[in-house]
Amino acid sequence: MSVLLIEPFYGGSHKQLMDLLQEELQEDCVLCTLPAKKWHWKARTSALYFMQTVPTSSNYRILFASSVLNLAELAALRPDLGKLKKVLYFHENQLAYPVQKCQERDFQYGYNQVLSWFMPEHKLARLEKVIGVKRNGDAYQSEGLPGQQESRAVMKTSDAHPESGLCEPQPGLCTTQHEGLASPPAAPDQAEAPESTNPCQGEDKQGLTFNLSNILSGLDYQQRPLHIAWPHRWEHDKDPETFFKVLMKLKEQDLPFQVSVLGETFSEIPDIFSEAREVLGSSVLHWGYLPSKDDYFRALCTADVVISTAKHEFFGVAMIEAVHCGCYPLCPKALVYPEIFPAEYLYSTPEQLFKRLQNFCKRPDIVRRHLYKGDTAGFSWAALGCKFRSLLAAEPREDL
User: Fold this and answer.
1) Alpha-carbon dihedral of residues 45, 10, 267, 93, nearest 10 degrees?
2) How many angstroms separate the CA atoms of 232 and 226, rounded?
3) Is 329 in contact with 341 (CB distance < 8 Å)?
4) CA nearest 65: which of 108, 110, 116, 25?
5) What is the pLDDT of residues 286-332, one digit of tens each?
6) Lowest mean pLDDT among 132-146, 161-175, 337-351
7) Mapping DSSP to helix (H, G, I), strand (E, B) and coil, where does residue 260 land?
8) Reading across the β-sheet that carries 305-307, which strands appear in turn?
9) Label partner for 119 (CA 20 to 30 A): which of 14, 62, 89, 251?
10) What is the C-alpha separation between 232 and 265, in angstroms, rounded?
11) Residues 6 or more apart from 270 whose CB is under 8 A from it?
């Protein structure tokens, strides 16, 4: 139990990351969590809860927590934990997170993150020496580090049951229905796929073969309407309004398409979802959360295009998952996306997004023959696992 993992919001990408680390570290860690409900209360009060519930141990060397936890408060309440080497993982930036209503922002959550991230002068000097952080006035920027403004996802695949986990050595937001990125389930019949098919057909790097015609229940793949996927949380920061307005415009022009609106819902759902469900009508292929990971990846595997309209994104696991399943990505030319996706997959305005989808609706074969031109290998556990193990194996020192 040398690594203490603390997650106040144990759900979604937060859960996926902690589960992966626990699985990889096995007997070398202990995990303390709270359910993924009432996020704001967890951000305000979880330090007091964990102060009372985290077991005392002389074996702890490293504390790994997400920024939902007010780390400064916990360190003050539990001096024994304050002495550990601490790794703080940011899923989002609360100072820049888009507000849903035109009202004064509650700065408590951003303030918590500032307190948790604050480092005294001697630590900043060490950081500059070790990893090349340079000071620019009161700000700091890193040099020579991969993905300065984004994080890296980690895809893990085993021979017996292809699954993956999410890891991010840099701050990042990962929000999706199922954050573990896995190869889609193999179809019963393994047949060699033609070259001009969805990349989900054919043999992937792990040697698994997928027969997309079986997944599509024998329907002619090339004759189906364009299948659009939106696999994000049903919340305002994902900007569902922009997405649905574009689809409604496609519907008005009688363009053929199908849509799968996936992702998890919470207590408050934007009104646009009920409106869009009624307007889109028969164009809806699937609507709602898929608890089964196999069903989720099967839905992505049958989709042609995956869309993001997010207003706040540090990484975007859902998009990488869909690309892994053979989807053509269309993302805003903003946030983290230009760091991950080549320029041809980016759009600047809703009008540009509409025009791209308009063309694809008329010629779905364009995206079905397309082979993704980016690289997702750097997000694999094989590529990043050793870095995490090194980070979490470091011996604590007084200057840390």
Assistant:
1) 70
2) 19
3) yes
4) 116
5) 999 998 888 999 999 999 999 999 998 888 889 998 998 889 999 99
6) 161-175
7) strand
8) 284-287, 257-262, 226-231, 305-307, 328-332, 346-347
9) 14
10) 9
11) 234, 235, 236, 240, 241
Supply the pTM of this predicted model.
0.66
* Token pair 């690289």 in the structure block, residue: 375
**In whole angstroms, what is the distance from residue 136 CA to residue 229 CA?**
42
For residue 33, the one-letter residue type is T
Q: Are 386 and 281 in contact (CB under 8 A)?
A: no
Single-letter amino acid, residue 325: C
DSSP for 277-306, written as a single string: HHHHGGGEEEES----HHHHHHHHHH-SEE
Structure confidence at residue 121 (pLDDT): 60
pLDDT in the model for residue 291? 86
The number of CA neighbours under 13 Å toward the Cβ of 205 is 12
Query: Which residue do the tokens 């080549």 mark?
Result: 342
Spatial separation of the C-alpha atoms in residues 219 and 267, rounded to whole Å: 37
Tell me the mean pLDDT in the region 254-283: 94
Per-residue pLDDT of 180-236, as tens digits, reads 333 333 333 333 333 333 333 333 333 223 334 444 444 455 679 999 999 998 988
d(CA 78, CA 54): 9
Question: What residue segments make up the domains of the chain, in order of their start?
Answer: 3-150+381-393, 202-379
